[in-house]
Amino acid sequence: MVSNRCKMAVKVELRKLGLHFVVVDLGEVEIMEDISNEQREQLKAALSQSGIELMEDKKAIIIEKIKNAVIDMVHNTNDAMKLKFSIFISEKLNYDYTYLSNLFTEVQGSSIAQFIIANKIERIKELIIYDELNITEIAFLMNYSSVAHLSNQFKKETGLTPSQFKKLTDKRRVSIEDIGKHN
Known about the structure:
Blueprint: H1 4-16, E1 21-25, E2 28-31, H2 37-49, H3 58-76, H4 85-93, H5 97-108, H6 112-130, H7 135-141, H8 147-158, H9 162-167
Antiparallel strand pairs: 1-2
Helix pairs in contact: 3-4, 3-5, 3-6, 6-8
């Protein structure tokens, strides 16, 4: 789950099944009752209709938690950007970063660092489109060492400089759900 809409959809489906939840958060649900196989299948089918996948594989769940931590860090939490990504993710998930990094690469076929960069680029695009901050302020907000570093990484990922992107009339962005997916 990567949005409030997803969390709301899960809550609705849990209520329909008469299940009481303690936590419905990005990527995880904690319910009070033991869930029967029939309820699990009903929940799985109902969520699927909303475009939400019920995950039970431990590796897949950890990967989803990594993705959610990165999304939270890059898109929602400005202060977290000041921490080293490895420390933030390791502390948030309570796992050794090396383990998380190896697992992510094994399952996703790309590194956590690449996923972070893809998310940062999408966030930078969003900030450029909003046109409330200049590129220096964006570089500071996104914790780049310099405007040149941000510009170089942006051009490497998009083929455009930030100023070229700003001039585009059709500013192509990727939805949070699709960042890091290989087409």
